[in-house]
Amino acid sequence: MTDQQTSGSTDDAADQNPGSRHSTDHRPGEALLEVMESAPALTDAATEPIVQVHDPLSWRAELRRQWGRRRTLWAFGLLLALPLILVASFAFGDRNGNPNRSSPSSRIFDLAQSGAANFSLVLVFLASELLLILLAALFCGDAVPAEASWSSLRYLLIAPVRRARLLTSKLFIGVASTLFATFLLPAWGLLVGGVAYGWDPLTNPLGDNLTWGQFLPRLALAMAYIFVTLLPIAAIAFWLGVRSDAPLAAVGGAVLVSIVFNILDQLDALEPYRNAFPGHYGRSWQDALAVSPDYSNMLHGSLWALVWTVAFTMLAYRRFRRVDILS
Amino acid sequence: MARSFVVVGLAAAALAAPTVSAVAPATAYAAGAVDSHAASSPSVSRPGAALGVPALRPQADQPAPVAAKLPVRAEPDGSAVQLDISFYGQSDGTRHPLVLLAHGFGGSKDSVAGQAAALQARGYVVATWSARGHGSSGGRIHLDDPDYEVNDAKALVDLAAKRPDVELDGAGDPRFGVMGGSYGGALGLMLAGADPRVDAVVSAITWNDLAQAFFPQSALAAAPTTAAGRDPIAVAGPFKQVWASTFFLSARGGGSAGAVDGGAGAATGAPGGQPPGATTAEATPAPGAAAGSGASRGPATGAPTAADSCGRFDTALCRLFLKASDSGVASPELLTLLAAHSPKPSLARVKAPTMLIQGIGDSLFGLDQADATAAALDAGGTPYAVRWSDGGHDAPSTHEAEETEASYAWLDHYVRDKAPRDSALPTAKFTYPIAATRAGQPSTLHTLPAYPGLSGTSLATQSVPLAQKQGALVHPPGGLPASIIAVPGLAALGISLSTYQVAALPGQSTAFDTEPLTEARTVVGSPTLTMTVTSDTADVTLFGSVWRVTGSSVTLANPLVAPLRLKVTPGQPTPVTLSLPGATYDLPSGSRLRVLLTSTESTFSNAREPSQIAVQAGGSLILPVSQLDGAAPGTTVSVVDTEVVLALSALGALLLLALGGFLVRRRRRRLLPSRPDLADIPLVIEGLVKTYSDGHRAVDDVSWRAEKGQVVGLLGPNGAGKTTTMRMVMGLISSDAGSVHVLGEPVSAGSAVLARVGALIEGPGFLPHLTGRANLEAYWAATGRAPEEAHFDEALDVAALGGAVDRPMKSYSHGMKQRLGIAQAMLGLPELLILDEPTNGLDPPQIAAMRPILRRYAETGRTVVVSSHMLAEVEMTCTHVVVMHAGRVVTQGLVADLVDSDDTTILDLPEDADAALVRAGVHALERHDGIHEVRVDTASRLVVVGELSRVAVVQAAVAAGLPVVGVSSRRHLEEVFLGVISSASATPGGEPIDENISLVERLRQVRAR
Fold first, then answer.
1. Concatenated DSSP letters for B153-165?
2. Out of B219, B391, B766, B836, which could bridge B29 as a Cys pair, Cβ 3.0 to 4.6 Å?
3. Nearest to B438 among A32, A165, A290 (CB)
4. B330-373 residue pLDDT tens
5. How far is residue B213 CA from its own chain's centroid?
6. At CA B850, angle to CA B849 and CA B854, rounded to 5?
7. Which of B867, B898, B929 is the last residue of a domain?
8. DSSP assignments along B833-859, one per residue
9. A positions 280-319 inside 8 Å of B (CB)
10. SS3 call for A86
11. Half-sphere exposure of B297 (CA within 13 A, CB side)
12. CATH of residue B946
């Protein structure tokens, strides 16, 4: 509160003395009027053709709008902090805790400290369950309602940016941010893991060991697959974001949808329809790390993910094309 | 239960039947009972749900099975024996082929009832019987003795030949096949060897040589020529104690129906591929279940005798077994007897086409048993097919349905269809599974046109050099602790846990690793390793197992061991070739194989004498490899399956929908024409209508225009539709009717012409994390126009933010944001500037500063539209005014025209005028001719309306005693505004306006509407 008051008072000071940078007899707006009056006569202006600007709200312009945002910084900060937190936790933790644990997942964790490859795999294992889903929902679901909540959406539209173009830019940058996060995570994990635990290749808890040459392409494939499985969540969040002006509603709604599908996915009664649910093949990325990878589940997962993505993206465009902007 | 899962397979109640849990994997294996519809459906290479195929109960139109008693050969002690048999007949009056369906060890004819019904429905007459010593049949168990059990089956064939519904090849020679698993499988092979009437055999998970099964010897007399070939040396191997005990205990129980029912139940409960309790059952046969069932059949009272512990076993056989269990060593009599009770001696006489199904997951009868049978059949020129299953006595198959279907196809081909022996086989000659890479998935099936090493083919092998060749180990005194390697059931659970620690006991084991494989290989069969063994005792036993080593993880290739027993001269190296367990597995390139030799194994009877053993391995490990190598694993499974097709069609449909929608929209897009006639007018609004979804008509037929050089004020009370109009002008809201043209171009969402318009609508909107300057730049970047056109500095000068332009938006006050919003609207010097409530949050000096800017902005030939509540402000700023009320335009025109009028005179009075004097003056004035109305606007201001000239009005006022200090003709805009609003309100509603209520009150009424 005090901060605001302080800043408010300095603003007032600026208000009181608007022309402080200029000569004392300067009046606000004078410069603009001078430019206008020196501009070519407006009678010509009417004859100028009205052209559609080729590229309103370019990728770069949209990226700039999103990049400096606190939520973006927090998201990536969290992503970057996660491996460091893991390393710190492993350092505090008791390494020979319970030797009897032998479920595959706990073995994954036991091997986390065996080298960069294992560490990044653990990181992916942890993050793919929720963190990446949240980030995808945030990057794609928040872009439109955030503008609405700042009241800047209408100014973008009258800039003018065509509705479809606005959505495309928002979606592209959201998806690109998700992609970046998806690949940043294992890359940063490799780096942190390498520094902390050495550059050993993968000791595979799920199958046979892989050399770096085998592991890196497989990891890239796994991350690409994870990215594709994030797309339905991103699309649902995007659609909810277009429908709602509340950024949290979009993100929370998308995560909620993913949780509901997760629950439904547990019901054997829904076999085989549940195969089509987003998230059903969510863990199939692990197939890519098997000895002789069986890509059929990944193929199924990718295709269903694309179906959901296209469906919700279509809904979003359809909605936004028609909606009256009242924010 | 309308749909009952009757799971009684080929191996129904197989040899391991005594306990409920032990029978589970065996019965689940080849869950045979498939109804006719399912059976006639084409088999697929990789079904989603091979397990738990539902079987229909015998159909209503099928005759019920008829039980009968068949007297057969008496026991050696002279007691008479009757077999309990059942015929599943056919009632259509024609003759049908016959199937003899034999049950597994410990089962009875009831164990195969479901499968019998399925075969009956398929058009066969089916004969089932409880073997001697089983079920309700009399006699004792002779372990498929050619003189007893095999003869019994012959007698059954004789009986069946007399049935009127059984098709005959000749007198007393029915057309028939014999089918069975395990105990019944061996019986089928032996019957085919003993009885030339047999037309086809399907024999599953059974033995070739029972002596080799119970005293397995993996030391080879000659290098193998077939995939799982194992030609052992003449020394009997170590005793397979755990299986023998299981076997023995089941004989005690005599095979009760309870075990079978329980097994079926357990098997149906295990469609996930996890036989309940399979692991524990094999390692520790549960005595409780056996004792429980035994109690009902064995002597209920009396002291236990030697005969009691033999249960229903033939006593001579039983004694030999007990002796072997005691010593751990095979007596020659037992070996002779077991060898005689095997298909092996009579295979040369088998001419009936034979299908062999053998399990990889089978620590009782391994692949080598079927291999030996196949080799014998091949040598005799008998048609045969070999099918390896991933199930067996240890685990359920993941392809039961296909295996059952293949069995039926075999019978159909050779029995029903009477195909000649030289016709093409109804199935591939060799089928083998490769385990899926992930747990819980069915294995992939592969086929070859010949069994490797038979039918004139040679065995493909790959030699992998060993990385180390020396090893030494001890045999512990007493044979304990024992290595645990073959844990049946683990593989079935899909667990690839490393059990290496309990297998490779320190000192008691030695391991030989190969060099890493240079390319991926698929092992199909038994690898072999040559080595020399040196021991300090004359009797050496070793157990070999194969492990896959990748990095630091060591996993068992298959939970089987290959035992080796040698008679050596102490201290002398003895060469030997070890045949390792037969199985199929993928080996990725870069991985190693490890041959683990242990001196003990927990499922075998281990020698009690300690010994020290040194092993020198030969140069390399010989792997029998698949000829399919080179093809990537899993290629037999097509990439395009149903799910892919479904997903792709859904995707395609969506994309088509999107494309269709796009095209339709393009066609239907309401293209308002350009209006060249309006090209010179910045803003023309015609007939605009907007009704919100809640039915509220916010804008109703609004038309007005703003010309160049005008400053148009849009006035109206709250809810008049000003903002809605402005949003429609900017294309933010779609109109229901009417049009908006900017410079002659129609405006809809995102119209390009909006680039010529700058607007501030309902407050500014900025990104809070950017500075003021960055916000303007971000906005301009969104327009996609060149930065030079924007005139940032000049616009920022309008905002007059000083140093605050470089601070984040968050710290801005309301007024600063408002000024920045106006500046943003002016970016690029738009020809039409639309400002909604621009003076909100501005203080009077700032408002005053804004006023000339707007006026001068318009003077450059541009146009400004301002909406405001501050009427005085509008009056001072605007040239033109449009007044809206309740969605309609009530008046519009030049401000000067509106405020100026002939019939109204404003009289200013001094502030300190005497109230009484003024009141009296007003009354006097009102009574004056030609004066219609005198309003006391404020205490010092009178509004006089009348036809009198202004001079006459002033004279009259002075005459009335009013202290007039000023006279003007201009009303304030507020009065005009309230006047038109109140009259507009009155007209539609017909609401009477009380002329006496004050302006303030009237305003309140207007607002309230």
1. HHHHHHHHHTSTT
2. B391
3. A290
4. 889 999 999 999 999 999 999 999 999 999 988 889 999 999 99
5. 42
6. 135
7. B898
8. EEEESTTTT--HHHHHHHHHHHHHHHH
9. 287, 290-294, 296, 299-300, 303-304, 306-307, 310-311, 314, 318
10. helix
11. 25
12. 3.30.70.100
Placement of tokens 């940058």 in the chain: A173
Pair B970, B981 in one domain: yes
pTM above 0.80, yes or no: no
Verify whether the Cβ–Cβ distance A296 to B437 is below 8 Å: no
Task: Output the domain CATH number for residue B81.
Answer: 3.40.50.1820
Q: Between chains, do A15 and B816 touch, taking CB under 8 Å as contact?
A: yes
Domain match, B31 and B91 both: yes
* Whether B150 and B30 share a structural domain: yes
Residues B947 and B958 in one domain: yes
Nearest to A175 by CA among A56, A274, A299, A305: A305
Q: Give the residue carrying structure tokens 């068992």.
A: B556
What tokens appear for A262 in the block? 């997760």
For chain A, say whether B781 makes contact (Cβ under 8 Å).
Answer: yes
What is the residue whose two structure tokens read 């005990």?
A: B245
Nearest residue in chain B measured CA to CA from A101: B497
> Does a structural domain hold residue B786?
yes
The answer, for B726 touching chain A at a CB cutoff of 8 Å, is no
CB atoms within 10 A of CB B748: 19
Using CB atoms, which residue from B644, B731, B812 is nearest to A303?
Answer: B644
For residues A185 and A199, give the distance between their C-alpha atoms in angstroms, rounded to a whole number: 17
Q: Are residue B348 and residue B472 in the same domain, yes or no? A: no
A60 touches chain B (CB under 8 A): yes
At A105 the pLDDT is 52
Q: Are residues B477 and B412 in the same domain?
A: no
Tokens representing residue A119 in the block: 């560490």
Cβ atoms of B120 and B62 closer than 8 Å: yes
Q: Is residue B226 included in any domain, yes or no?
A: no
- Nearest CB among A7, A162, A208 relative to B551 is that of A208
B966-968, strands of its sheet edge to edge: B931-938, B941-946, B904-908, B966-968
- Predicted local distance difference test score (pLDDT) of residue B215: 93
The answer to whether position B216 is within a domain reads: no
Residue B221 inside a domain? The answer is no
Using one digit for the tens of pLDDT, what is the confidence trace for B739-793? 899 988 888 888 888 888 999 998 899 998 889 889 999 999 988 888 888 888 8
- Indicate whether B783 and B724 sit together in one domain: yes
Whose tokens are 């372990």? That residue is B143
Contact between A156 and B658 using a beta-carbon 8 Å cutoff: no
pLDDT (tens digit per residue) in B128-148: 999 998 988 988 899 899 999
User: What are the Cα distances from residue B49, in Å, to B8, B226, B391, B398, B605?
Assistant: 17, 33, 15, 8, 39
Integer Cα distance of B45 and B41 in angstroms? 13
- Residue B445 DSSP one-character state: E
B966-968 and B904-908 beta bridge pairing: antiparallel
Domain containing residue B576: CATH number: 2.60.120.260
CA angle B5, B6, B8 (to 5 degrees): 140
Q: Looking at the structure, do residues B107 and B196 belong to the same domain, yes or no?
A: yes
Residues of B with Cβ-Cβ distance to A321 under 8 angstroms: 749
- Domain's final residue, options B388, B414, B448: B448
| Closest Cα in chain A, distance from residue B918 (Å) | 44
How many angstroms separate the Cα of A251 from the Cα of each of A139, A150, A256? Answer: 9, 17, 9
Which pLDDT band, with edges at 50, 70 and 90, does B552 fall under? low
> In terms of residue numbers, what domain contains B992?
899-1008
Sign for the pseudo-dihedral over CA of B64, B67, B68, B73: positive
| Residue B852's CATH number | 3.40.50.300
Per the structure, how many domains does chain B have? 5
B680 touches chain A (CB under 8 A): yes
Structure tokens at B631: 């093809």
SS3 state at B624: strand
Here the tokens at position B81 are 């024996």
